[in-house]
Amino acid sequence: MTTMTTELIIKEVDFNGANILVAQDNDGKSYVGVNWVCNGIGLTKGQMQNERIRIQEDIVLSKGKRNLVLPTNGGNQEFLCIELEFLPLWLAKISITPKMKSENKIVDNLIEYQLKAKDVLAKAFLPYIESFIQDYLDMDEDERGIAYFKEKKQRKILELQNQELIPKARSFDALIGANGSQNMNSVAKSFNVGRGRLFAFLREKDILMTGSKNDKEKHNVPRQQYLEQKLFVVREYTIPDADGEIVNRTQTLVTSKGIEFIDKLLKDINYDLEKFSDLDV
Fold it and tell me: In this structure, what DSSP letter does residue 179 have?
């Protein structure tokens, strides 16, 4: 798959059975998404996080890192990438641990990436570059001038879009990385969906319960299996009612693990919750 913007040309390259996202900027520099490489090798979430830290803190590797806004099923998000020239050095620094040795497939994948990945990924843009140069040479002087100013206009539009998208992506990353649990209102805002629609969606998925007229305490409370998976927590509190009587209430909170869980569910429907009532909380 190829995606073109005025700032980046983005391609998905099939390498060793995994789709690796590669991006090339206007200066001809190519970058590879760190998450995609880690997933392709088969690293765990913890190992992936260690590699992200390594790239950002290593005195040499950090010179090749760049945060790029890349397309995903859930919309554009900012990801850590590494310049293709630095890829072999990064991969060479990934140590093969005893646990990895026990999982032969991971070791075999890592060796394949270390030996071949850079060359395969670098070839992804050769056909495009040759086609682009030929198209440019075929233009007359006026056409080249029009193409230049059109490119500048599109670049400005992209810059304005990135100014809007990057804070959203960082907000979601901060929400996942936050200590403690988040209320449903904060979670809904991070996905740019209505709180009521999100509640209704999770009830339809039978993740949250629907309280009856005689048992409203269970309304929007997670089912036990999802509490045991530590996706949600329920906070109990008391408030006075209209008559001044103290009544018990519950609030459903979402853990960082639960936010990732909800994000996966929403990606499956492209974050489209229009059929759910925003008033049906």
Answer: S
- Three-state DSSP class for residue 189: helix
Provide the phi-psi class of 137: left if phi over 0, else alpha when psi is between -120 and 50, else beta.
alpha
3-state secondary structure of 122: helix
- Provide the residue ranges of all domains of the chain, joining segments of one domain with +: 2-160, 182-267
Asked whether 31 and 81 are in contact (CB, 8 A), the reply is yes
**C-alpha to C-alpha distance for 227 and 237, rounded to whole angstroms:** 18
Q: How far is CA 61 from CA 84, 85, 185, in A?
A: 11, 10, 39
* Total count of residues recorded for the chain: 281
Bridge partners (DSSP) of residue 69 are 78
> What are the pLDDT digits (tens) for 220-245?
899 999 999 999 988 877 666 556 66
- Distance, CA of 121 to CA of 81 (rounded, Å): 14
The span from the CA of 245 to the CA of 53, in Å, is: 53
**CA 250 to CA 236: how far, in whole Å?**
4
The C-alpha R_g of the chain, in whole angstroms, comes to 24
- CA 19, CA 39: separation in Å to the nearest integer? 9
Residue 40: φ, ψ to 5°: -65, -40
User: What is the predicted pLDDT for the residue at 65?
Assistant: 92
Q: Using one digit for the tens of pLDDT, what is the confidence trace for 63-103? A: 999 998 877 776 778 889 999 889 888 988 887 777 777 77
pTM as predicted: 0.44
Which tokens hold the place of 89?
């050095």
Cβ(110)–Cβ(100) below 8 Å: yes
